[in-house]
Write a structure and sequence with these properties.
This is Membrane-bound polyferredoxin. The chain is mainly α and 281 residues long. The protein folds into 2 domains: 199 residues, no CATH class; 57 residues, Alpha-Beta Plaits (2-Layer Sandwich). It is built from 15 helices and 2 strands. About 8% of the residues have low confidence.
Length: 281
């Protein structure tokens, strides 16, 4: 029986989350959106949005602690799994052509520049700090206005209200335009500019489960000396599993499993429990 690729499973999982949102809208179950970690009133609060809201209002909101606690627990157990298996943005990005040489050249320059500075600082952490600081200064969650995850479901909710209640809004025109611009011109936004991903990565440093690991006895590079960078080439975070990875580097792993699928020797596994001090992760 042919093995189902992880990319196919991820697509099905994301579509299941989208279906859950539609069911919530249709039957008023209060299950919230895909960017939320909670239920009913708590489900309206994503971890980054909740922090921004508290900084904007300059007040402490006790009710968000439950949502944040669930977010921390899920991230400790599964790492940055949200970014690959729940967030719809990477899936949508595949629908846009990559043959625009000018855009690709600019993307590569930004991506290369970010990789060169990744050892000392990660640009997404600066964006995270800017998002939180701007919320405090301006008194409202600034990043929520351009968050691709939020925009995606704002469009979905707006479309549903148009169909169900005949309530047309300008958001159905403005939000899709902003979203398309982000998907086309900021192809590396998930790994280099997303503050939500950065926040998840910070907590993911505590994750010790399902971390990718190379079987050196099977790996073509370590066992036969044949240079192979296929796993790194398909990784959206450019993680090189052949190098001793630091916790801060592997914390950005989204568990997408593309590296395992592309490995010709099937040498990459995601064991449930991994020691953080493994020599090769």
């Amino acid at each position: 029986m042919k093995k189902i690729k992880a990319s196919t499973l991820r697509t099905l999982t994301i579509l299941a989350f989208v279906l859950l949102v539609i069911i919530g809208l249709a039957f008023h179950t209060g299950t919230g959106t895909i960017s939320a970690f909670g239920y009913k009133t708590i489900s309206a609060i994503c971890p980054l949005g909740s922090l921004e809201a508290q900084l904007a209002s300059k007040t402490f909101l006790p009710q968000v602690l439950i949502s944040l606690a669930v977010f921390v627990l899920i991230t400790i157990l599964f790492g940055r799994i949200f970014c690959a298996w729940a967030c719809p943005v990477p899936l949508f990005r595949k629908w846009f052509p990559k043959n625009n040489s000018k855009i690709n050249h600019a993307e590569k320059e930004v991506h290369a520049s970010s990789q060169q500075t990744s050892k000392t600082a990660d640009s997404s952490y600066f964006v995270l700090g800017g998002a939180l600081a701007s919320s405090f200064v301006f008194g409202f969650p600034v990043f929520c206005l351009i968050c691709p995850v939020g925009l995606t479901f704002a469009v979905l909710i707006g479309a549903w209200r148009l169909i169900q209640f005949n309530e047309p809004t300008w958001s159905l025109l403005i939000f899709p335009v902003i979203l398309v611009l982000e998907l086309v011109f900021y192809r590396y936004s998930c790994s280099k500019f997303c503050p939500l991903g950065a926040l998840i990565s910070l907590v993911s440093r505590l994750n010790i489960f399902m971390r990718p690991k190379i079987d050196q006895k099977v790996c073509m590079q370590t066992s036969k000396g044949i240079e192979c960078k296929l796993c790194k080439s398909v990784c959206n975070e450019a993680i090189d599993l052949h190098e001793p990875a630091k916790a801060s580097t592997l914390s950005r792993c989204t568990k997408c499993r593309d590296c395992a699928d592309v490995c010709p020797m099937s040498a990459i596994k995601f064991p449930f429990f991994s020691q953080k001090n493994d020599k090769h992760l």
